[in-house]
Design a protein that fits this description.
Elements: E1 9-13, E2 18-20, E3 24-26, H1 28-38, E4 44-46, E5 61-65, E6 73-76, E7 79-87, E8 92-99, H2 129-139, E9 142-143, E10 146-147, E11 158-160, H3 180-187, E12 193-195, E13 197-199, H4 202-208
Antiparallel strand pairs: 1-8, 1-13, 2-3, 4-5, 5-7, 6-7, 7-8, 9-10, 11-12
Helix pairs in contact: 3-4
């Protein structure tokens, strides 16, 4: 997606209802987990202590996809998404990736929306421009030009963790390295945002590149 600032827009699908190629309804997250683990895909990993796995957070990641070769494309209404993770409660987080007429998400066309997080260039979710855009899209059952009016019951009114993270590489005053686990703790400190549309988190990006 080509934008002024890259922003990963994400949405959650109910864990018991998943669509493949807009035709076949299957058992969702359980089937994904079984398929990935049985085929030993390197791009599929289970959350643990290092990624701050905590069952007390129902929308926190339990399994996640990583790497360029991750087998995680999802196609619906001629739009391509990538599965980011599967939450503790079984719901599936997907990120909008572009447009394609191919169910295998080949020859993807990027959507040229110029979105930015904040006109004031501040890391403040509550007063951000993108928050207002997402609220307006959700009001109209839209994600870019992807219309989820007829699918709105399968998309979850989720809790999104919106805490700002420390951009430093070291903790003060101990000078110890800031870890992925530290970042995830910071993300969960703020009051959560409840909606159908949210943003991919810094820890999601870091884990995808791990």
């Amino acid at each position: 997606m080509k934008k002024v600032i890259f922003i990963g827009i994400v949405i959650l699908i109910g864990g018991g209802y998943f669509i493949i190629n807009s035709l076949t309804q299957v058992t969702g997250s359980d089937m994904i987990i079984e398929h990935q683990l049985s085929n030993n895909y390197d791009g599929f990993a289970k959350d643990d202590y290092n990624t701050n796995f905590d069952e007390q957070f129902p929308f926190a990641s339990r399994y996640f996809f990583r790497g360029n070769e991750a087998n995680n494309f999802f196609w619906h209404q001629e739009h391509c998404f990538r599965i980011v993770n599967i939450a503790v409660n079984g719901h599936v987080k997907i990120m909008h990736y572009g447009y394609s007429e191919n169910p295998n998400c080949e020859e993807i066309t990027s959507l040229n929306y110029e979105l930015k997080f904040s006109d004031e260039r501040k890391n403040n979710w509550k007063n951000s421009n993108i928050k207002e855009v997402l609220k307006e899209w959700e009001k109209n059952n839209k994600l870019y030009d992807f219309d989820f009016t007829y699918d709105e019951n399968i998309f979850i009114n989720a809790k999104w963790y919106t805490g700002a993270v420390n951009g430093a590489a070291r903790k003060f005053p101990t000078n110890a390295p800031i870890t992925l686990r530290d970042h995830i703790k910071e993300e969960r400190q703020e009051e959560v945002y409840q909606a159908k549309l949210g943003l991919i988190t810094l820890s999601d990006y870091l884990k995808a590149n791990s």
